[in-house]
Amino acid sequence: MLVRASAGTLARLGLIEFKTLEEPSTAYLLQYSEKGCNARCGFCLQSRSSRREPREWLGRVSWPAVGLGELKNSWRRVFKRICFQTVLKPGFHSEALKILGELREVDPETPSSLAITPVPEHVLEASRRLGVDAIGVGLDASTPGLFEKWDKPYSWSVYWRFIEKAVRAYGAGNVYVHLIAGLGESLREIVETMLRAHGAGCRIALFAYVDPRGSSKAGLKHYRLAQLARFLIENGLNPEQYIDLDKEWVKRDIPLNNLLEAFYTSGCPDCNRPFYNESPRGPLYNIPSARAMASYLERLKEELRSIGVEA
After folding, report:
1. CATH at 141
2. How far apart are CA 131 and CA 118, in angstroms?
3. Which end of the chain lies in a sparser environment, N or C, as judged by fewer CB atoms within 10 Å?
């Protein structure tokens, strides 16, 4: 049985030689499908509608295929979390549970996340028994219209019902709704979707859209404001009290001392996915570590001044 793993993950396990400025703190694994995912999401390089070959790319990152046995034999407990991401293909959820079970045999301690499309409730229950403590749901688009435009599978309402089901199964704060900035949404639209997800008991994992040539397409000011809005929501504040969502500008001082934390990678605990959305040369949409923050800080301060924030 084959799986895909990010190049950074394989390098940390000693399976390939690959130099990077930042190591992944999570082991990123992707379900294997020779023909890609049966979904037709227009922004995804794993989609069957994508013309990019070979099928080992997702975001700006390569995901070489590796035998599950080889992965298990090479496993070292150097990661803080395992993230297993599924694709749509026949029997995908049964295969996903089998892989999670085999990984649990070699590493029963490291917490796991499962990124999955709508599935029956028994799959959620089974994954929890296998040590999964966080569920990622790729809603991705911020409005029903964009959901259809980018050809997401199922429907907007099916996804929201599944999100509610996942929260019932895993508890508030343990379901992460993935949103992609740069798909054509306004700042108000993405913030309203964040607020809906938060109200349902979810947290937000924010991504920047990367086109098939590897270029990030989310406007940087738009993305910084979306990150800031997410952080305000996480801290129990209403973004609209501090951000003009229509003019895209911070209109008043924000009463948080740790504001720079808004611009780190958002997602499950210990997820840093280095350079998934950006070139190491920058701009860094998602800052993967304290070391990277220190190196990027002066440039980030300039970016924040452009949206009305003195950091």
Report:
1. 3.20.20
2. 19
3. N
